[in-house]
């Protein structure tokens, strides 16, 4: 919304400037620059309002997730509100570049315990087949891609993977009952 209203403001201002010589005529056409100027003012006020609302949402999001941000930067969480305020002042100075590089957040200890967590165990291996005779992986000894079969499960000999594996065919349709 900010981009839309700001673009509309710039376009309307340009239109008002370009069409301003029409004001000399003093007829109905001379309203074009006036309307363009009014539209520029209204869209500028809309851009300010949208930016203000965006700022409130951004500040709220920052307030809600400030501890997640501190953890993501691997700093120890402040124990008191005074230490949190001090840390936030140093962080703001760091992000705005107002402190020399040697002093930027140097007093705050890092917390690298996120790297000390054990890695999750790998999932147990799946058995080769599920007992149905069908091979979903496409890489078995019958019709798989290792022996020249296509990726869809067929092979150069023709037929589908289930036909090559000896799966039973569908039963024939029932015969009409005698009358």
How would you characterize this protein structure?
This protein is mostly helical. Among the domains are: 2-61; 68-113, no CATH class. It is 44% helix and 0% strand. Helix 1 (2-18) runs antiparallel to helix 2 (31-64). The model is unreliable at 138-157 (pLDDT under 50).
Q: What does this entry show, briefly?
A:
Helices cover 44% and strands 0% of the residues. The model is unreliable at 138-157 (pLDDT under 50).
Helix and strand layout, with pairings?
Blueprint: H1 2-18, H2 31-64, H3 66-72, H4 81-96, H5 161-164
Name the features.
single chain; mainly alpha; 44% helix; 5 helices; flat; 179 residues
- Number of discrete helical segments: 5
Helix content: 40-55%
- Percent of residues in beta strands? under 5%
The secondary-structure element order is: HHHHH
């Amino acid at each position: 919304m900010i981009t839309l209203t700001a673009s509309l403001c710039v376009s309307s201002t340009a239109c008002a400037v370009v069409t301003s010589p029409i004001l000399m005529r003093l007829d109905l056409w001379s309203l074009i620059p006036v309307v363009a100027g009014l539209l520029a003012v209204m869209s500028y006020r809309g851009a300010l309002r949208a930016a203000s609302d965006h700022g409130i949402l951004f500040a709220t999001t920052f307030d809600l997730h400030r501890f997640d941000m501190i953890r993501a930067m691997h700093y120890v969480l402040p124990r008191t509100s005074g230490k949190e305020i001090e840390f936030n002042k140093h962080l703001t100075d760091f992000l705005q570049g107002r402190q020399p590089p040697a002093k930027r957040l140097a007093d705050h200890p890092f917390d690298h315990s996120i790297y000390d967590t054990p890695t999750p165990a790998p999932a147990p291996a799946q058995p080769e087949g599920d007992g149905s005779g069908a091979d979903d992986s496409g890489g078995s000894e019958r019709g798989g891609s290792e022996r020249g079969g296509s990726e869809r499960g067929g092979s150069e000999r023709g037929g589908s993977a289930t036909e090559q594996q000896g799966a039973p065919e569908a039963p024939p349709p029932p015969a009409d009952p005698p009358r």
